[in-house]
Amino acid sequence: MSLLRRAEKCLANQQVHRLLNAFVYPRDEGTWIQEHTWDLRDADTRRDGGTAKSAIDGFLIAVKDNICTSEEPTTCASAILKDFHSPYSATVVEKLKYAGALIAGKTNLDAFGMGSDSTNSIYGAIKNIYTQDGNFLSAGGSSGGSAVAIASGQCDAALGTDTGGSVRLPAAYTGITGFKPSYGLVSRWGVVAYANSLDTVGILAKDSSMARSVFDTIKGFDTRDPTSIPVSTRSRIAQELLERKAKLGWGNRPSVRIGVPMEYNTSELQPEVRKAWLDTLLGLRNQGHTIHMLSLPATKMALSAYYVIAPAEASSNLAKYDGVRYGNKSSALERADNVLFASTRGAGLGEEVKRRILLGSYSLSAAAIDNYFKKAQKVRRLVQRDFNNAFALSHPLLKSQDECGNEPKVDVILTPTAQSLPPKLRSLKSRAPIDSYGADFLTVPASLAGVPALSLPVPIPGRDRGDQNAPTSVGLQVLAQYGDEEMVFSIAQSIESLWDLK
């Protein structure tokens, strides 16, 4: 299929699936095709002649609406930034365009990336492509719009942001692939900050091959991002990984050591998820890989630590949205206490955003910082230590490893992405806000540790297809040592071949 016909199909799907609410501003098919016909034909010519700019030359890539683009508004799905136009595009967007990709539009999300079901948006809730008993299901959050856009064929790939699982959870709920790279490998410049030490630009795609192509395009050092890993360090990491793998004999070994953490086999894990996990492990063992049980004890504390650290950083990052420096100023400025920005923030920020700002402000207060924020940071170090002790490769950015225990050393870890299938949207209305935080229990540890993680769909074994539009897969996530994206993609391809997902 030519790139032009491919683009026309994607744009037609944007109109067909408008009810799913994946895009903030869906493209007008006729106008967009007229503007980019020659771009697509040129890309086709380059591809036919073997001179394509990149593997994604001429492909349509959607961008989450908390990533700046100069051509259209960047609103973060929040009233306080409605109609805000950034004077520049994010580094990742610039890299996509340089590689020949075309922007398919801005996708809907939980406001400022805060949510697990993509319901906290001024544009309305995002609906999953799957239903149950005629009821729409949650698309996961906060990158639900990007996930649904992929699942419904509205673009070829999409960018999201992953702070505690915001790419991987929607991928699991919608039956696609979601990849979170190692922290610092992809520039965050131009990404509206939620929690600086956790935010990572992620990729959503139909399979790991496309996710890898986009990752190869957007990764790289950026002088404008202070958290970006320098070129010299990237080269050293790559060299050290090669040397350590050679020392361990990994290249000559036909099998990979796959770790299965006991803490991820929770009582809340639905039978369908557990069965898919076990069947995949059995299939990988039949391929010649070895399975090793291990323990990551700090996992049980990770979620609590995350919901102290992330809101604390958010309360600082969102202080600038006051109607003076950034944001739409409220017309109701007269207050008895004469606080100029209180009305603006009260009207412009959503309930979940205000809830997390209050939580973060409290945990940073003099009365609570010792009992909450500092202890959460200690838990974060314990989570990182658990992963470092589990992986055979040592962390390339640490001079010394805090070794403890006699756990088996593994190359990758395979776990479920979510404990359950996506819930019904209508059931979320009666759920307490804090109950939604539990959806991130299995994704948060990788974010706290900064290691790469990829969620991919595997079929639900023995699924009764009485409801033809019910979910057909669950998400499993592959985790590896920091900087070892190669291992993540390698095992993802093994799983895809196991289930013939390609």
Supply database-style keywords:
ten-stranded mixed β-sheet, 12 strands, single chain, alpha/beta, 502 residues, two-stranded antiparallel ribbon, 15 helices
Shape: globular
What topology, given as strand order, has the largest sheet? 2-1-5-7-6-11-12-10-8-9
Number of helices: 15
Measured on Cα atoms, how large is the radius of gyration? 22 Å
Mean pLDDT: 93
Helical content class: 25-40%
What is the string of helix and strand elements?
A: HHEHEEEHEHEEHHEHEHHHHEHHEEH
| Low-pLDDT sequence parts | none
Gap between N and C termini, in Å? 17 Å
Number of strands: 12
Characterize the main sheet.
10 strands, mixed
Q: Strand pairing plus helix content: what structural class?
A: alpha/beta
DSSP strand (E) fraction?
5-15%
Structural account:
The protein starts with a helix and ends with a helix. The mean pLDDT is 93. It has 502 residues and is α/β, with parallel strands linked by helices. It has helices at 3-16, 29-48, 91-98, 144-151, 168-174, 208-218, 231-247, 271-286, 299-317, 342-348, 351-363, 373-390, 425-428, 444-449, 485-499; strands at residues 60-64, 102-107, 127-132, 135-138, 157-162, 177-180, 200-205, 257-261, 290-294, 412-416, 453-459, 473-480.
List the helices and strands and how they pair.
Layout: H1 3-16, H2 29-48, E1 60-64, H3 91-98, E2 102-107, E3 127-132, E4 135-138, H4 144-151, E5 157-162, H5 168-174, E6 177-180, E7 200-205, H6 208-218, H7 231-247, E8 257-261, H8 271-286, E9 290-294, H9 299-317, H10 342-348, H11 351-363, H12 373-390, E10 412-416, H13 425-428, H14 444-449, E11 453-459, E12 473-480, H15 485-499
